[in-house]
Amino acid sequence: MSTPTPGTGIYLVANSASTAGRPLADIVADAVAAGVGTIQLRCKDLSAREFLAEATACAEHTADRALLLLNDRVDVYLAGRAAGIRVDGVHIGQKDLPVELVRSLIGPDAVLGLSASTEEHFAAVSTLPAGTIDYLGTGAVRATPTKKDHPTPLGFSGLTSLISQAPLPCVAIGGLGSGDAGEAHAAGAIGMAVVRAICSAENPRDAAAALVDEWTRASRTVNA
Amino acid sequence: MSTPTPGTGIYLVANSASTAGRPLADIVADAVAAGVGTIQLRCKDLSAREFLAEATACAEHTADRALLLLNDRVDVYLAGRAAGIRVDGVHIGQKDLPVELVRSLIGPDAVLGLSASTEEHFAAVSTLPAGTIDYLGTGAVRATPTKKDHPTPLGFSGLTSLISQAPLPCVAIGGLGSGDAGEAHAAGAIGMAVVRAICSAENPRDAAAALVDEWTRASRTVNA
What we know:
Two copies of one chain form a homodimer.
Chain A: E1 9-15, H1 24-33, E2 38-42, H2 48-62, E3 67-71, H3 74-82, E4 89-92, H4 99-106, E5 111-115, H5 119-126, E6 135-139, H6 155-163, E7 170-173, H7 181-186, E8 191-194, H8 196-199, H9 204-223
Parallel strand pairs in A: 1-2, 1-8, 2-3, 3-4, 4-5, 5-6, 6-7, 7-8
């Protein structure tokens, strides 16, 4: 059995500013226990040292069970690896460091995801050497308060159209949650990223379990 | 002639949010032309990609003339080096990545400065292997609007007392500018860091030249 593409299934963007005051690592633990396969830590409000501490705490829950990716801060990833922490890679956006430099810094085995949501982004990705990027984060499907700078929402029809042109597997993102897995899967996404649907849920574990179940059913329906 | 300790003399913290709308690289060019020996780029309001672009632009002015250090973002430093840009090191604070990890990431030849302004900070520095840190940034001498989280201002008497206990050469920082070089030098600092005194000056080059002249005279007076 081959390893699935990073980002497959339900993908939690664990946003330190969206936890309603609860420890981020607790929410990550709940998500992993519920079967979420990829965790991206997004800690724009934290210092590098605090981010590394969060990654260290979360790695205890993700190691050997889920992928742990860090948003933007390649140095926190490298420091974590140097300190022996099980972080698996980074996810970067169009305003972060250029992807080829990031790949050269993290090495060939680390997971590298890139936010790419326009035909121009896709064209740039197409010029990169094979293996530079593992998956694309594509959206926003809907408007979301989590990211202020997202482009005009695509909707599921826009997502479907965009993914059909994508040079790499896409994870759908942007205001997604309960009830969306079927449409995200049908749009061609390999995974569905959520932020508030788990981070801000009253019971993050139940919310994550329901999303994982929804995604699993969507996958079975199509593959049947 | 041996190379002076990094941070010696007038040290510009080129803060991207303090330029009154002028290009940061223009201010850095002015400072280097006036004889400023160390430039630290502090770009908290910029993305990693924008920070790298600023470093690239500034390196054209600093290469072979002044040290170019980057604040906090070790990944931007590493990306710059990987891209062939002449960046010389990083300056980190107590909330940034742990210093030993940073040293392991940047290698033995890069310059590494650390903000350290209490006896507790000094005690932690004293436990580090020799060569981990090149110099300390010590302050705030005065309150400053540039950094919101600085400790209680030391004044020059507090600075003198603190530097007398420091395990490494100290660069004085915090609200310093015209007329302060004599007292900063007399306090035992190897250099004087300024932000607004150059970044926000009507004529950054003249302001930098006056500070360099002031520091040079202070050094000569003591050494005479």
